[in-house]
Specification:
Layout: H1 12-23, H2 27-43, H3 48-57, H4 61-72, H5 77-87, H6 89-98, H7 107-116, H8 119-131, H9 139-164, H10 175-185, H11 192-207, H12 215-240
Helix pairs in contact: 1-9, 2-4, 2-9, 2-10, 3-9, 4-5, 8-9, 11-12
C-alpha cells in the first residue's frame, strides 16, 4: 500500500487533519525561521506593527527577510518591490505543478489555496496531491497544511518581535534561513533526477551570486528544473531500452 492509500474516499475533515499532521513536523524549521525574521525586521528599522503585518500580507519567509534587509539598507522602493517580486517567483513554480490537479475547484478555493501555497505547505502537500487518491476532497489536505503553516508563522513572528530587543544587533542570523530550506529539501531527495537537479541548481546559485535583484534564484531554479526533466527523460529511455 502507498503512503496515501488510507485517504481513499476520505472526507473533508479527514483530509484537513491529515494535512495538519503532515505540516506539524515542518514547524520545527519554520519557528526558528519566523523568530529570525522578527528579529531582523526590528534590526532593519521596521516598526513592530509592520513586521507583524507583513507575515499576513506578504506571507513569504524569504521575501519578508529580503524586504527587511533591503529596507535596512535604504534601497529605493522600486528596487525593493522588484527584488521581492523576483524572490516570490518560486511560488509560481509551486502553483504550476499543482494547477492541473486543482483546476476544477471554485475560484474562491483557488484564491485561498494560492495564498497558503508557500514553501513548507507545498513540501507537505505535494506528495498527497500528486501520488495520493484523486478524491474530490483532496484540496482540504493542502488547506490543512497551509493553515497550520500560516498559524505557526504568525506566532513565530510575534515571538521574534518580542525577543528581538534582547538579541544583539551584531549577531548574523541570516544563515539559519538557508539551513531551514536545506532541512526541508534533503529528506525528499530519492531519484537520480532529483539529485541532479539539486546539484545543478546549487552550483548555478553559487556561480550567479553577482547578478542584480536576486536573479540568481530564478536562474538556479530554472537550471535545476531543466536538469531534472532531462535526467528523468534519459532515465526513462534507458529503462525502455
Amino acid at each position: 500500500m502507498g503512503s496515501w492509500d488510507h485517504l481513499e474516499g476520505a472526507g473533508s475533515r479527514t483530509e484537513l487533519w491529515a494535512g495538519v499532521r503532515a505540516e506539524l513536523p515542518l514547524l520545527l524549521g519554520v519557528v526558528p525561521f519566523g523568530l529570525v525574521y522578527g528579529v531582523l525586521g526590528l534590526q532593519a528599522g521596521l516598526p513592530v506593527w509592520a513586521v507583524i503585518a507583513m507575515s499576513s500580507v506578504m506571507f513569504g519567509g524569504a521575501s519578508q527577510v529580503v524586504f527587511a534587509q533591503l529596507w535596512g539598507a535604504a534601497v529605493p522602493a522600486p528596487l525593493i518591490v522588484g527584488t521581492v517580486g523576483v524572490v516570490n517567483l518560486r511560488h509560481a513554480l509551486y502553483s504550476a505543478s499543482v494547477a492541473q490537479l486543482l483546476r476544477d475547484l471554485p475560484l474562491r478555493w483557488k484564491l485561498l489555496l494560492a495564498y497558503l501555497l508557500t514553501d513548507e505547505a507545498y513540501m507537505a502537500a505535494v506528495g498527497r496531491l500528486m501520488n495520493g487518491p484523486q478524491g474530490a476532497q483532496r484540496h482540504w489536505f493542502l488547506f490543512g497544511a497551509g493553515l497550520t503553516l500560516w498559524s505557526g508563522w504568525q506566532l513565530a513572528t510575534i515571538a521574534g518581535v518580542l525577543v528581538g530587543a534582547v538579541i544583539p544587533a551584531g549577531w548574523s542570523l541570516d544563515f539559519s534561513i538557508a539551513l531551514t530550506f536545506i532541512a526541508l529539501l534533503v529528506p525528499g531527495l530519492k531519484r537520480r533526477s532529483e539529485l541532479a537537479a539539486v546539484a545543478v541548481a546549487g552550483f548555478t546559485a553559487l556561480a550567479a551570486q553577482g547578478l542584480p535583484f536576486k536573479l540568481w534564484i530564478v536562474l538556479a531554479a530554472t537550471a535545476g528544473m531543466l536538469t531534472g526533466m532531462l535526467t528523468r527523460r534519459l532515465d526513462a529511455r534507458r529503462g525502455q531500452a
